Amino acid sequence: MKILDRFNRSGLFNRRQLAETRQHKEALSMNAEYDRLNNSKGRIATPENSIKHLYNQMHVDPDLRQAILHLRYMDKVDGRIKQIHKRMARDVTKGGLMLKWKGTRDKRIIKVWQQFCQRVQLNNRLKLFSDARGAAMEGNLPIQWVLNDDRHVCGGIRMPSETIVPRVDENGRFKDMSQAFKQVDPLTWRELARFSRWQLTMVRLEPDNFDDMGCLGRPYLDASRTIWQKLTMTEEDLVIRRRHRAPQKLAHILEGYSAEEMEAYEARVNNNAGQIQTDFFMNKKGAVNAIQGDANLDQIADVAYLLDTFFSGSPAPKGLFGYVEDLSRDVLEDLKGDYFQEVDSLQDMISEAYREGFCLELLLQGINPDAYDFSIEFAERNTETKNQKADRALKLQAMGMPQELIWEAAGEDVSRVKAKLEEEDNSNSPYPEESSHKTPKVSITPGNAPKSESATTISSGGGNS
């Protein structure tokens, strides 16, 4: 993403304020968003979305608002929905954020990143969890960047996405970058605030068209809401059926009884209804026959079908929530792999929002972020286990890869690892300039591990393995 033109068009920055170094000039030449906005031809938005954009300028998107309100209600009353959102947010934020370098590392950028995380509370797990849960439930993550008097980003506030309206034309492009978004009260339709493009970052989950800025994202469980309604209705009917048809019933057959005698007998039986009755006494011809309860209460294939249909549209398999039944371990592992890919894509979406905020902080400090090759990522990716990461890192070490790439492959923050190693050397060694850390010898034997994978062997310098 080319950040510089985006913020310059918002009216906050001027290119002359940035240092005119060779790296900055090369970075400026790569910024193409302004050209994309002005040199594109044709209509980007679909005819239906074009009309929808015009209507949404007067109020919030009713379809998105209804979907978000319904999902919040589902999350409140159904523990399965709550667990899906909670598990996704927990898996996404596990390990926290890290600054990953693809090019030459810069100590000044690292220091600015650490200060940025401290002010915006990105080192707080609860903050990250709230943002991730809101993104999964709403399908969008709008973050308002708050500046202090020293022109530092001091806060990243998550806004309710159903109240944010992009101010776009019928082509899906912003009318004015300095007033790109507005917040509208859904009840009174009153406009509450307007935000510049740099002031509010909106990342979207699977929009209809990424280039159409008026298309917002959709919640993960948006398409499963109808199935959920049918499932809950069927489950409620199942309980009502059991309550009325499961108990044993009695048929009292009384021949020759008058109306008064029938009423007296019925009143006597009803008065003893709370007690266990084993005997009935009559002085006329009659009988008490037992009517057995429904013998087919275990036939719930319709509930099982709706449950399978619901979880087939959810990001996580039902086996992760206790519905194991006859699910084999191999099938569950494959389904977990698909779920982890969904989690990784959500990580990329959320980290992109934090990257825009960090780039804004760099621009406020007079640093061009496009002059440095870095990315903001979550430290732990879920598609690999910790053992798989460690094994891959050891194999990269055996191949002679640089140490920093090995630490990144292991899922560690390189800056933190180097700082801790330096601190440990300075505290333990009487000669700080000499490092006390020795690299062990790693050897790989192809085909000597389960599933025909290569085995990894680690040995120290003394020959002990």
UniProtKB/TrEMBL annotation:
It comes from the Bacteria. Residues 417-465 are annotated as: Disordered. This is Phage portal protein. It comes from Endozoicomonas gorgoniicola.
